[in-house]
Amino acid sequence: MVVTFKDDLDLDKIAESGQCFRWQKKEENTWQIVTGKELLYAKRLEAGLYDFDCTEIAYETVWKNYFDMQQNYSEIRSLISPKRDFFLYQAAEYGKGIRILRQDPWEMLISFIISQRKSIPAIRTAIDKLCEMAGDPITGKNGKMIYTFPSPKQMAALSKDQLAACGLGYRTAYIWETAHRVASEEIDLKQINRLDDKALLKKLSELYGVGIKVANCTMLFGFHRLDSFPKDVWINRVLEHEYAAGYSFEQYSPYNGVMQQYMFFYYRVNKES
DNA sequence: GCCCAGGGATCTT
DNA sequence: AAGATCCATGGG
Q1: Is the CB of A271 within 7 Å of strand C?
Q2: Dihedral of CA A19/A20/A26/A28: which sign?
Q3: Long-range contacts of A130-137 (CB under 8 A, 24+ apart)
Q4: A169 strand B contact, CB < 7 Å
Q5: Smallest CA–C1' distance to B6, residue
Q6: pLDDT in tens, chain A (273 residues)
Q7: Distance A253 CA to B9 C1' (A)
Q8: Which of A94, A83, A97, A82 is closest to A9 using CA atoms?
Q9: Bases in strand C with any atom closer than 7 Å to a protein CB
Q10: b/e A141-172 (16+ beta carbons within 10 angstroms → b)
Q11: Over chain A, what HEC string results?
């Protein structure tokens, strides 16, 4: 069954917004998207209109949640005053259609540990190798094999040499340590989701290889804590050049993470310096 | 070949 | 507490 809908949704922008690393663009404006063991082909028909190649049940139980469809992003953007903050207004208009996906916390944690000092293409390559090495195979549309993101146990079963073979470099020890702590249930990602933002940030930061930036990315993209505001090189440029007088975190609470995505996307695509 | 990447740990001051 | 240095490897 084909599900069609029109909403504040632009998959091309989401794919370039730095929150997902495993989407693959196929022919005819179609994105191949995997979450858990679920596979989706989403085809763009026209601006804001997509064909989701999935059953209605799969949409209702999986993809509606994954794309955060119950959230009204237009309402969030209405917090921005073009008079008081023209830069953010402009960035948000430019990034209209971006949503914060509800991705798996474990996958986000590992993905963003890998992300440090790596270019986005290099991050994708490393994650793909990990999936192929330890994930479960799923059969894709053209019969080609696709692999799920390895579970904590699957990843903990890999040796450091195997991890290093995925191009993890000096992050190998970080991933190895984190995989074992989560697989052994010393750290329970479901349990810590009960913590408030501040406590969760602290808890995540205790992991080896997880600093303030990776913790915030994991919070925003994995735990859907929309107020988390990861500061990377791009955001630091924005804060330096556009908010020399200061950025008001309070003004956009509890949606600072959404604003961060608009800023990131706008600055990175336009390559301003 | 060269440079640097969605940072963090560790060592100095 | 803040600043400097090292880190492995793949893309561009």
Answers
A1: no
A2: negative
A3: A130/A155, A130/A163, A130/A166, A131/A22, A133/A158, A133/A162, A133/A165, A133/A166, A134/A158, A134/A162, A136/A37
A4: no
A5: A232
A6: 677 776 799 999 999 999 999 999 998 899 999 999 999 999 999 888 999 999 999 999 999 999 999 999 999 999 999 999 999 999 999 999 999 999 999 999 999 999 999 999 999 999 999 999 999 999 999 899 999 999 999 999 999 999 999 999 999 999 999 999 999 999 999 999 999 999 999 999 999 999 999 999 999 999 999 999 999 989 999 999 999 999 999 999 999 999 999 999 999 988 754
A7: 31
A8: A97
A9: 7-12
A10: eeeeebbbbbbbebbbebeeebbbebbbeebb
A11: CEEEEECCCCHHHHHCCCCCCCCEEECCCEEEEEECCEEEEEEEEECCEEEEECCHHHHHHHHHHHCCCCCCHHHHHCCCCCCCCHHHHHHHHHCCCCCCCCCCHHHHHHHHHHHCCCCHHHHHHHHHHHHHHHCCEEECCCCCEEECCCCHHHHHCCCHHHHHCCCCHHHHHHHHHHHHHHHCCCCCHHHHCCCCHHHHHHHHHCCCCCCHHHHHHHHHHHCCCCCCCCCCHHHHHHHHHHCCCCCCCHHHCCCHHHHHHHHHHHHHHHCCC
A121: which nucleotide lies closest, measuring CA to C1'?
C11
And the tokens for A130? Answer: 């990990």
pTM of the model: 0.97
